[in-house]
Write a structure and sequence with these properties.
The complex is a heterodimer. Chain A is of the alpha+beta class. Chain A has two domains: about 270 residues, no CATH class; about 130 residues, Alpha-Beta Plaits (2-Layer Sandwich). Chain B is α+β, with helices and mostly antiparallel strands. Chain B is about 25% helix and about 25% strand. Chain B has four helices and four strands. Chain B has a four-stranded antiparallel sheet with strand order 1-2-4-3. The longest helix of chain B is centred in the middle third of the chain and has 9 residues. Chain B is globular and about 45 Å long. The chains are: A alpha+beta, B alpha+beta. The interface between A and B is large, with 47 and 43 residues.
Chain lengths: ~450, ~100
Amino acid sequence: MKEIRMLSATGILGSGFREASLQRGMSLSPDFIGADSGSTDPGPYYLGSGETLFSDSAYKRDLRLMLMAGRAAGIPVIIGSACTAGTDAQLERLVGIAREIAREEKLSFKLAAIRSEQDRSYLKRKLREGKVTALANAPVLDESVIDRSAHIVGMAGIEPFVEALENGADVVIAGRSSDTSIFSAMPMMRGLNPATVWHAAKILECGAACVVERKYPDCMFAIVRDDHFIVEPPNPDYRCDPASIASHNLYENATPYELVEPSGVLNTVAAQYDALSDRAVRVSGSTFKPAERYTIKLEGAELAGYQSIIIGSVRDPIILRQLDSWLAGLVAAARERIAAVFGAGIAEKYQFDVRVFGRNATMGPLEPETGIGHEVGLLFQITAATQDLATALIKSVSHIAVHYPVPEWTGLITSIAYPYSPAEISRGASYRFNMNHVVEPASALEMFRIEYEKV
Amino acid sequence: MPKLWQVTKLIRSKNAGPFELTFDVIFKDRASYERARDARVINADWFARTYRLAPEVVSIINYDAANAIKITIPRPIISGDINDTDVFGGQQHGPLVNVEVP
């Protein structure tokens, strides 16, 4: 029977897995080891700045075990969305870590690096040709957005992975790519049913997230055949059941019934989930509808400004009972002081926001509750074009705020508890996701460049 | 009448990408799920009222395979933008927890 055995090391490279689980997974004769290394979950900072979610040491620990296991068994190791956002620099960082590991462990392999960062003039041409389409709730995308983006990446499908594997790559490290493509590439190369493949890939891409109770990040294993796949955790402390596998389709997806990929849409409406044992599940019945147009999703981030903040809290019941009017007065007084120091024109050059913890700091405009408790936390936030300006402005806020009066008390009051000295914290650059669009390339490989090297 | 948290094994919210928020209500068993589903306790009007949204933007999906109800809405603020309050979108489900169900 034609089948592919796949081992997912973890849900996100750098978050870890048990070494024993990887060994147990290896004993089940996988055809490859895969892991996703990226996410938009932690926000736009990683795409905008090029920083990484985990430390180099954390990436190295996970990648070392994967590379050693992969080379020992002679099977490919496939990593997608290098170092969080999958920019070229983040890809190079992970490739550099792979080279270091190879040197230290005396491994040799053919490495393929897939670049996902996008050329601005290419995207502008596609925009002019009407080959860029907005997805749900997308912001406006025009040429100025492309120009001011710090980085723009395209989310690769399976095709660059397949190309790299067909060219004999032992290790594939990709920039931004769809989480599922990492796991779909090899079974699709072998000609397995796309519906079964994509569904299995969706379950595997989050590592052990599909178990009944995930206590820590770990590996996951699946056997993919034409009309079904079987998923079973290599860690004996973990188990999957039909509900845990079916539930995983809900996770960070707008609908559990559809998964949109560059080449089509997986539909799970008719999927069947059957327990094979108390820890293994057999999945069958999904369908896959090939797309009429092949599209690549874009992700972009631009600088939103530099921020300085102050954290404080208020406990005085007299202030709390008039919190809104007191805060409104405080903000007006701080703005007045800023104008006095920096001139009237400064008003256009900064944004001043206050967050009230204990009221609506978590849900903002979605919060239905209006009351507060015996204390509130306050966060004053200045956003400006440079860090120097944001820092200078916040220093005017802190003094005004800490002594801002209420009519009931006579004499100078100190109205906010600051936990830190200095009260002001420079937060650095803040970025904004600025596109939620797909591009129609002339070919599946057009937007991605593959570089090979002998390591 | 029991509260929603008493008949579910998980109520959670999460980003579905940086531009959408999604809520999963996963019931403990088939019977509780079907009672809540058939009584339409969680409906677009109620959700929109609670979260101060227009009902047209609220999508509600019954997912029988996992005894779950899913709600998806546009994010009021893009994840991580200047005034976003919850970058992962993970703490937006609070108002669902104590809803009374049949």
